Amino acid sequence: MTKYIIDAGQVEQHNAKLRAELQADYDALGGMLARRGVDIEALTAKAQTFGVAVPSWGAGTGGTRFARFPGKGEPRDVTEKLEDCAVINQLTRATPAVSLHFPWDKPSDPKALRQQADELGLGFDAVNSNTFQDQAGQAHTYKFGSLTSTSQASREQAVQHNIDCIELGKTLGSKGLTVWVGDGANFPGQSNLRGALERYIDSARGIYAALPDDWLMYIEHKLFEPAFYCSVIADWGTSFAVAQTLGPKAKCLVDLGHHAPNTNIEMIVARLAQFGKLGGFHFNDSKYGDDDLDSGSIDPFQLFLVFNELADATLRDGTFSPAYMLDQSHNVTDPIESLMSSAVEVQRAFVQAALVDRAALAGFQEGNDVLQAAQTLKKAFRTDVSPVLAMARLRSGGAIDPVAAYRASGYREQVAVKRPPKAGASGSGIV
Ligand code: AOS
Ligand code: ZN
Ligand code: ZN
Ligand code: ZN
């Protein structure tokens, strides 16, 4: 029996108030979709299958290198982060797993943490290692890199940390390790570009060797920051080469914010999928760089186009199932509200992509009817599938309007009393 943090009766009350209105919208949309040959019931059932993992570090207020303005009732440790993640899943029914970050989330008792997650109806998605910061008491610095450091001791320490993450992840029931390193250079000449990647591959082999058979290692690329002249794993080409070199359990992870502005991310997705190396995503949105804004808040069309490629890949490859994770930083909103809305935006793109008339699109592409091909995508993107998403939530036991239900529950005010502010509360601030 799942333990619900928000009183189930309150959620029912919320739904009772909105149910009739939702049904009317749902029926109207159902009629419209039926005329297009789409069965709304099948679409809703599909929406119910969707899940995106929530980043534990997203539950606290983020920050920038200038300041962090703490929010009320921020989680102070991993168990409180899990409680917030459980609220997100209870109301959205679209976030059944949590992605942990070590050592930020290192539990004193991993078995107890797993039990807490079980009770809350949550699982653990990929665990993230952290070699972009020095930790208290650490023997060797990462100031000049971790997996690529010229210091063998720093490299070995970074490899060992990743292996420790795998061990911890095994106890928690996780099945993947995400590796993102900030390694790179700030000056031309600072590092030997090829030498740094050679060291990365050598270190990564040590991590790969410790992966259980049913695990994946996700290589996350990022164009810049904290290294501003060059990053070692800067782009999908590098991450692809590394994943290819390491073996079948290594895949590429695409964080939407880790590219130059205007990069065609959906094409990267298509390429990685074609060659069997698309492992997963960190969803967020951006205007300028690694902004870590809420998913779908700036460019929902791009998110849709990414899911359009995923839908195409699923049709072609059948078993294809990349890991979906959010990776966002919330500075001016309640993190729970942002994460709920973002999960719904990603789910929206997933459902909209399912609406694309693929036979028609293929025909227009074949006949070079460019305008109609573009319109076919736009038609799906413009369809407001909100009633499908709300109905999917209702049927799965969630809230018709998650943010409204959350606000009505008074959860934030309650935890603000239980969780007095503490400096650096989120354990993050670095995103
Ligand atoms: C850093 O820019 C990456 O997005 C990583 O995924 C990182 O581990 C995460 O954002 C937490 O800081
Ligand atoms: Zn300035
Ligand atoms: Zn990321
Ligand atoms: Zn990032």
UniProtKB/TrEMBL annotation:
Gene3D superfamilies: Divalent-metal-dependent TIM barrel enzymes (3.20.20.150). It holds the Pfam family AP_endonuc_2. Transmembrane segments: none annotated. One of its GO terms (molecular function) is isomerase activity. It comes from the Bacteria. The keyword Iron does not apply. Residues 101-292 form the Xylose isomerase-like TIM barrel domain. SUPFAM superfamilies: Xylose isomerase-like. The keyword Metal-binding applies. NCBIfam families: L_rham_iso_rhiz. This is L-rhamnose catabolism isomerase.
